[in-house]
Amino acid sequence: MIADPSLVVAGLLAALSAGLLTRAVLRPSRRLAPRLTPYVQVSRVRLGRAPAAIASTTAQGAALGQVFGPAALAAAGRVGEMLGGTDDDIRRRLHQAGWGDTDPRRWRLRQAAQLTAWTVGLAAVGLVTGRSAGTVLVLAILGTFIGFGLTRGKLTSAIDVRRVRMRSELYTLAQLLAMLVRTGSSPLQAVNRVSRLGSGPVAGELSVAMSQIAGGTPEQAAFERLARATPEPAAARLYRLLASSTQLGGDLSAALRALADDLRTARSEAIERDATRKRGLMIVVTLLFLAPVMLIFIGVPIPSIIFSSR
Questions:
Q1: 167-266: which CATH architecture?
Q2: Which of 88, 128, 125 is nearest to 108 (CA)?
C-alpha cells in the first residue's frame, strides 16, 4: 500500500519544524575556537601555517554536524564544482565580497542547502496540489535554478556593493596619501597611518598588505597581490602605484594627486551618467501614466463631435 504523498510531505515538514524548534530552544554551546581564530591568524601565518589550514581547523559544530558534516561537505563540493567553479574561484570571489573569513567549503554547503530547499519545496508544492509527475519534475528543476541563482546573485551583489564603497573612498585616500608623502612621510608610513585610521574596504585591504609586509613579504609583492585580488580596477591602480613607489621616489606625491584627480573625474562622469539615466527613466514612467489619460481626454469627445455634425 502506497501512502498518500501529501501525508508524507506533511510528516516531513512537521519533523523539520520540530527539529528547528528544538534547536531554537536548546541551542548548543558556542565553541571558543571560531571566536579566537581571527585574533591568532597573523601569528600562525608568521609561524608558517597557511590561512586555509587555519580556517579548516575551526570547530565543526554539534555532534550531528560532526557525523554528517564531512559527507555533506564532499557532496556540496562536487555540486559546487559543477555549478560554481573551483575552491580558488570561490575563495577569490568571497574575498572580493568582503567575506574572506568564510571557508569556500562552508559556502558550498550553504549553497547546496539553499538549492536543496528550493528544489524540495517546489516539488512538495507540486505534490500537495496534486500535479502530474512531469509538472513536479519541472518544478523541482525550476527550484534548483532558483536556489543556485539566489546564492550566486547574493555573492555578486555583495561584490558590486563593495566596489561602489571602494570607489567612493579612493579619492579621499589617494589625497591623504599624497599629503602624507608630501610632508615627509615614507610610503609605508603613509599607508600604515591611513590603514589604521580608515575603516572602509580599501583601508582594510591596505591593512592586510601592511600585515603581510610586517610578516616578511616584500613591499612590491604585497601590493601587487592586492592589485590582483581586489574587485575594483581603480583600487588596483592605486595598489600598483604604491608597489612602484620605490622607483618613483619623490614623484609619488604628484602621481597620487594625479590619480586622485582621475578618480574624481571618473566619479563625476559616473554620477552624471546615472543622473541622465534616472531622468530618462522618470520621463518614461511619466509618459506611461499620462499617455492613457491624455488619450482618454482626446478620444472621449470625438464620437459626440462626429454624431452631432450629422
A1: Up-down Bundle (1.20)
A2: 88
Q: How many CB atoms neighbour CB 89 within 10 A?
A: 13
Question: What confidence tens digit (pLDDT) does each residue in 226-260 have?
Answer: 888 899 999 999 999 988 876 655 578 888 889 88
> Cα–Cα distance between 133 and 136 in angstroms, integer?
5
Per the CB < 8 A criterion, the answer to whether 174 and 238 are in contact is yes
Which are the contacts of 238, defined by CB distance < 8 A and separation ≥ 6?
A: 170, 173, 174, 202, 259
Phi, psi (deg, nearest 5) at residue 263: -65, -40
Rounded Cα distance, 276 and 293, in Å: 26
Q: What is the pTM of this model?
A: 0.62
Which residue is associated with the grid cell 500500500?
A: 1
| pLDDT, tens only, 13-48 | 677 767 766 766 666 666 666 667 666 766 666 666
Q: Tell me: the pLDDT tens digits for 87-118?
A: 778 888 888 888 777 777 788 878 888 888 88
**Which grid coordinates belong to 190?**
603613509
C-alpha cell at 171: 579619492
Angle (CA) 93 96 101, round 5°: 85
Burial 132-147 (b: 16+ CB within 10 A, else e): eeeebeebbeebbebb
Q: How far apart are the first and last CA of the chain?
A: 79
Q: CB-based burial of residue 121 (10 Å sphere; 0-12 exposed, 13-18 middle, 19+ buried)?
A: middle
Residue ranges of domains in the chain: 167-266
Q: Exposed, middle or buried: residue 173 (CB in 10 Å: 0-12, 13-18, 19+)?
A: buried
